[in-house]
């Protein structure tokens, strides 16, 4: 990994330090204050509107990342021209979702739903973080996120500290998305004022995103649903209280994924730019080894202190989150490896294949969650996630381009032996 990519990785990881701080000292404090039931209500509303948020972007994060890596100016024009379509799609999906939720019951869930609807709107527009990551300028994202998250966490902590009405937690939910969007949008517009001013340009880029994104739309919706089916299933079978416990397990089990994502996002531009297919495979294999090594270190650490951590910071009501948290840690590692493979497929324009794959995984995940959650609760939900991620990483990718991914995985297992033989040969 070159110095610029490594520096970018460090900046991307450093921005998450404040998030980890918040998870340890603020989110846990809030969860202990409101209890599993109210915490479950908040996480359920968040889960539902995240689906609309992801779907509204039409996979534009991947499309724009790839375009900017190859052509900076064109990438900026693509961002500017396609903003309206993201707004329209979000509203088309999110408004009916909001209306179908329990709006007749004007309790806490209603306010949390409205807050998550607004927060999802700003998150769906915030494609600027992808832009800065593609340019290896994660430093900007770091400054923005540290300031924004600090403000949102402070408000959340004050509400809990003074034991105010839990409904007021709706405000930091909105702030956590609104502030980063406003700050990043200002920086982007101030420094990169490149416009697709002609209506023909806007039409061209919009059609491009819809054309490429149409292959992603099923994939994005399918992925956003199957990754959250465990939440929906637990809520259906066991209610909000058990959902609150599982949400803690999921938050802790995935909290460290930013480390893997930082390396992936910093290293992928070099892979997209590489013209030699053999070198591409070598770089992808090395990146996967890095991810596995880092993940196993973190999982070992979590296994040692996890039980104590939940008991001290979240309280005895959440202690059942320990086992599913460990299981989800392995799912996080596998998911990171799967992300690399998906980006590898994207390099060869396998958008349509990824769309079909995600749709198939949705059905597999639905079956797994129904069977495992119904009879095994939160542990079953975690196991369903792991099995789905394993299938996503392996079998479901092996049909792409005459087994290209299977050859890649063979290279992963063969590389240590090749290095060993080379060493002996010397």
From TrEMBL:
It is a multi-pass membrane protein. The chain crosses the membrane at residues 42-65, 77-98, 110-131, 143-162, 168-187, 208-229, 249-268, 289-310, 322-346, 358-375, 381-400. It is found in: Cell membrane. One of its GO terms (cellular component) is plasma membrane. The keyword Protease does not apply. It holds the Pfam family Polysacc_synt. Keywords: Cell membrane, Membrane, Transmembrane, Transmembrane helix. This is Putative O-antigen transporter. It comes from Klebsiella pneumoniae. The lineage of its organism: Bacteria, Pseudomonadati, Pseudomonadota, Gammaproteobacteria, Enterobacterales.
């Amino acid at each position: 990994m070159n110095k610029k990519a490594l520096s970018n990785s460090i900046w991307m990881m450093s921005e998450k330090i404040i998030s980890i701080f918040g998870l340890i000292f603020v989110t846990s404090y809030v969860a202990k204050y409101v209890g599993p039931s109210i915490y479950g209500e908040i996480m359920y509303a968040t889960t539902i509107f995240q689906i609309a948020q992801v779907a509204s972007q039409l996979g534009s994060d991947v499309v724009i990342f790839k375009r900017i890596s190859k052509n900076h100016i064109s990438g900026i024009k693509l961002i500017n021209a396609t903003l309206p379509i993201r707004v329209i799609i979000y509203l088309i999906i999110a408004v009916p979702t909001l209306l179908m939720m329990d709006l007749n019951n004007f309790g806490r869930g209603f306010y949390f739903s409205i807050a998550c609807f607004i927060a999802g709107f700003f998150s769906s527009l915030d494609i600027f973080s992808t832009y800065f990551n593609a340019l290896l300028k994660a430093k900007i994202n770091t400054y923005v996120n540290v300031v924004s998250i600090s403000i949102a966490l402070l408000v959340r902590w004050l509400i809990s500290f003074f034991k105010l009405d839990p409904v007021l937690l709706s405000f930091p939910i909105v702030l956590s998305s609104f502030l980063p969007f406003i700050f990043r949008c200002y920086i982007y517009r101030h420094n990169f004022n490149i416009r697709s001013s002609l209506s023909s340009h806007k039409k061209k880029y919009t059609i491009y995103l819809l054309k490429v994104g149409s292959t992603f739309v099923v994939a994005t919706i399918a992925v956003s649903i199957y990754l959250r089916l465990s939440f929906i299933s637990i809520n259906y079978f066991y209610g909000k209280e058990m959902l609150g416990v599982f949400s803690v397990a999921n938050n802790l089990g995935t909290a460290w994924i930013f480390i893997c994502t930082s390396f992936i996002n910093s290293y992928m531009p070099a892979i997209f730019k590489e013209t030699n297919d053999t070198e591409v495979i070598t770089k992808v294999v090395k990146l996967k080894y890095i991810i596995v090594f880092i993940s196993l270190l973190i999982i070992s650490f979590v296994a040692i202190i996890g039980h104590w951590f939940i008991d001290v910071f979240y309280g005895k009501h959440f202690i059942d989150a320990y086992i599913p948290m460990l299981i989800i840690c392995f799912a996080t590692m596998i998911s990171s490896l799967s992300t690399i493979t998906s980006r590898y497929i994207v390099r060869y324009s396998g958008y349509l294949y990824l769309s079909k794959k995600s749709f198939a995984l949705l059905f597999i995940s639905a079956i797994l969650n129904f069977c495992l959650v119904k009879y095994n609760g939160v542990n079953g939900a975690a196991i369903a996630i792991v099995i789905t991620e394993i299938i996503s990483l392996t079998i479901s990718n092996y049909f792409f381009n005459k087994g290209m991914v299977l050859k890649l995985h063979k290279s992963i297992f063969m590389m240590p032996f090749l290095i060993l033989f080379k060493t002996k040969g010397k």
